[in-house]
Prior knowledge:
By secondary structure, this protein is an alpha+beta fold. It has a single domain, classed as 3-Layer(aba) Sandwich (Glutaredoxin). Helices cover 32% and strands 26% of the residues. It has an 8-stranded mixed sheet, with helices on both faces. A hairpin with a 4-residue loop joins β7 and β8.
Amino acid sequence: MKLLTFKFYIVCWLFFTMGFLYSKDNIKIENIIIHENPLKLEKIMFKSIDDLEVNLIKFENKLIVLNFWATWCLPCREEMPYLDQLSINKKLSNIKIFAVNVGRDDLEKQKKFFSELNIKNLKIYFDSSGDLPRKFMLRGLPTTVFINKNGEEFARVIGSYKFNNKKFIKWLKNYN
């Protein structure tokens, strides 16, 4: 039992300290992790609800926001309206947001989720291959990944976030 407790504390310690290893600086915006060296992403693909394949390489020269969510995720439910509003923020003219469902939910359940939350500006995308949680080393939902114009992940948010934060908008505008 003592060994199990010890292992639990080690895993918790690793979980909380690894986030700081990602970080370039502390910009004092809650739960945003900025990478010291942006991570080059390769072959990131997923599908739209129209069953069209989306390849992120086609969106170079845009600020890309990938939000990973699921219908059963309560923090995702809390966060999605803020993400919807971010997508139409006039201060961020060169932004493309992809709300990618990784929960393996059926299409009707995903549509109902968006309808219940009155999501008007985002489209539903999903991970048909099931590879994205591994490729992005997701540790929980929601997770939002920010990709610069060069196709590199430069930051991420782990957990729910209110994307209408003025300090956050000002910071994100630097990458727009």
